[in-house]
Amino acid sequence: MRAARAFLWVLITVPALAADWPMGGRGPDRNPVSPERNAPTDWQFPTERGKPRNIRWATRIEGGYYASGGPIVAGGFVWVGTTDRLSDPKNESLDNAVLACVRASDGKVVYRYVSPRRMFPADWPGQSLTGSPLVAGERLWFCTNRREVVCLDLAPLYSAKGEPRVVWKFDMVKELKVAPKAMMIPGPETHGSPAAYKNLLYVPTGNAVDADGKTVTAPDAPSLVCLEKDTGKVVWSDASPGKDMMCDHFASPLVVEVGGKAQVIHPQADGWVRSFDARTGKLIWKFDTNPKSAPLDFTGGAEASERNAVVATPVFANGRVFFATGRAPEWGAGPGRLFCIDPTKTGDVSPELGERPKPGQPNPNSAVVWTFTGGGWRETDRMHLSLSSVAVHDGLVLAADRHGSVHCLDEKTGKRYWSHNTRASVYGSPLVADGKVYVGSDAGEVHVLELAKVKKVIARHGCDKVIESSPVFAGGVLYVLTRGNLYAVAPKR
Q1: Scanning 119, 138, 315, 334, which has the fewest C-beta atoms within 10 Å of its C-beta?
Q2: Tens of pLDDT along 1-57?
Q3: What percent of the chain has pLDDT over 70?
Q4: What is the mean pLDDT of residues 121-142?
Q5: What are 449-458's pLDDT values in tens digits?
């Protein structure tokens, strides 16, 4: 599998050095695992409870309501999605989404791409630029709050001769007629983290139901678009959900090599996960994440539905694909399911066959390897709806959910070894680094656990703000993005 993983790095042409974290999930497999050693466990955030310890720097990020895009670390810089809402407290009308670039050596903000608001419900006031940019060499691609795909030239930044330059911009609302709707409470793995394969770029359009949770405004508009990386020209697009969309669309794609063919795996707004040929967009397989007996649509709105979708980016590890069901946080919590599937199959690979809303029959062509829902009398032992991608390492799967549970499972069987209660909602994904698991919560805490079959809590660190983003470890530094600050956690040099 090491050889296969190395091939993925070359295949997708994203050169992630040991010191870099150049895209959401770190690499093309979207598996948030760092190969570096000496990940910190002992630090103190600057709070009223004590003086900071082992904090290299702390930079105020104008987070407004949320700061959840990134962090992405590449070329000596850290990229985060935020807003400018707090930059001028006297100017109440100031409200733009911002992609901020922070110098990794000292935490200085050196560049800000400012993106004005679109009309509700495509864009919520006070919401940060969500999703994570993709960096490869001297190019950066990201999706704005306006559903514009932007390519930046970073050469002027790297040479200290100026700011990044916009190479091209593609407005998906204007050109593809999509009708996006922003998630009120965003997750860092959502809203358009692009993926790449050679000269191609894959971006979710955000096409979704209207604010009422029922009306499909643009059923013929695509949910996924493939663009040329150098020009932004459309290569192919897919509109599979059509009129069957039942929720907002958030999930970002995963690109993997399976059986000698590159495929783009994309969770979509009708509750199905689909795989497409990376070059042509031809459907390879489709997977229904909901029981066939579940109601056909959102009766009474999304909050009353028994059906869900996949919100976070799927993860590829050791020939398997992992994803959990979820929904926008504003529609509430509920029971969820974590799937491990075999992506080598073709056609309808759902657990069941049949027509909704009648009970389904077992599918002999199902790609399911195992499913985890949890059980037992404790609520924390169950799998709840999730906004998080999993992390897979050393035969273990770490999965977090909205209820605040972190589950440690056997990678091959889905057997649960333990669950940890963070006592708060988790929006980001677990990070695995140096035999440890890092999880941020909306209580403003980072939980540090041992990566082992037996549960051990190493530390718990509280900070000043809510954490919606996923922590990352790159270049010997743990980066934690809160609603107001970006922290570089490491002993000062």
Answers
A1: 119
A2: 433 333 343 344 444 456 899 999 999 999 999 999 999 999 999 876 778 999 999
A3: 88
A4: 86
A5: 999 999 999 9
φ, ψ dihedrals at 287, nearest 5°: -135, 115
As given in the structure block, the two tokens for residue 208 are 């979704």
Angle value at C-alpha 141, between 135 and 145, nearest 5 degrees: 130
The b-or-e profile of 290-306 (16+ CB within 10 A means b, else e) is bbbebeebbeeebeebe
Reported pTM:
0.93
Query: Amino acid identity, residue 231?
Result: T
Task: Provide mean pLDDT across the span 99-113.
Answer: 95
**Confidence (pLDDT) at 322:** 98
Residue 305 predicted with pLDDT over 60: no
Beta-bridge partners for 21: 73
Token look-up 């709105």 returns 301
- Please give the single-letter amino acid code of residue 344: T
Give the mean pLDDT of 468-487.
93
The rounded distance, in Å, linking the Cα atoms of 430 and 406 is 8
Residue 11 CB contacts under 8 Å (≥ 6 apart), including other chains:
28, 197, 198, 257, 262
CA angle 5, 10, 11 (to 5 degrees): 90
Across-strand partners of 370?
340
Least confident range from 8-17, 76-85, 313-322: namely 8-17
State the pLDDT at residue 297. Answer: 56
User: Of how many residues is the chain composed?
Assistant: 493
Contacts 24+ apart (CB under 8 A), 277-282: 278/197, 278/200, 278/202, 278/226, 279/197, 279/200, 280/236, 281/226, 281/235, 281/236, 281/237, 281/238
Residue 89: pLDDT over 70: no
